[in-house]
Amino acid sequence: ETEGILHKIKGILAETGGDGLTGHEQALLYQQIAALQAVVDLQTEKYPQGITLALQAMADLTDSDSLLYGWLNHFLGYAYEMAGDLEAAVKSFAMGTENSLKHKIPAGILSRCEIGRIRKLQGRLRDAEREYRRALEFAAETGMEREMVIFAQLGLGDVLM
Predict the structure, then answer these.
(1) What is the pLDDT of residues 69-112, one digit of tens each?
(2) Which of 56, 76, 105, 143 gets the highest tally of CB atoms within 10 A of its CB?
(3) What is the distance between the alpha carbons of residues 134 and 117, in angstroms, rounded to a whole number?
(4) Which pTM was predicted?
(5) C-alpha dist (Å) from residue 77 to 19, 34, 114, 146
């Protein structure tokens, strides 16, 4: 459904020429459309094109686009993991977490937990423990709901067993 909506928005913009929007607003809208398309591609396992589009979109996004930037990094982390590049995945998850912490966006806990999960898979249990503990610290700093904290608590418990 999202792809269809994005296609309609692009069509409307093409037909209207962005009437009523400043050049800056048009550029921002196109950047956001590209970023959303990258998220859709990554979620639907179109990894090569999703990775390329995500990297392009992230290069264009401004700091005010923090939520979208964080999600792009989160899904990019999954794409790198599926491609077998665990260190690139960790880097993407970490960038998303840093961005979320900077902007006090609680969803960053998920990216931090993904780093812990990858470190556990690699047999780096101390690193995994540290990441899950950092996720819990992040949750405390952002006032995260209990429903989200469970991911860090379960991951930490799994590593400590």
Answers:
(1) 888 888 889 889 988 999 999 999 999 888 887 887 777 888 99
(2) 76
(3) 13
(4) 0.80
(5) 37, 18, 9, 24
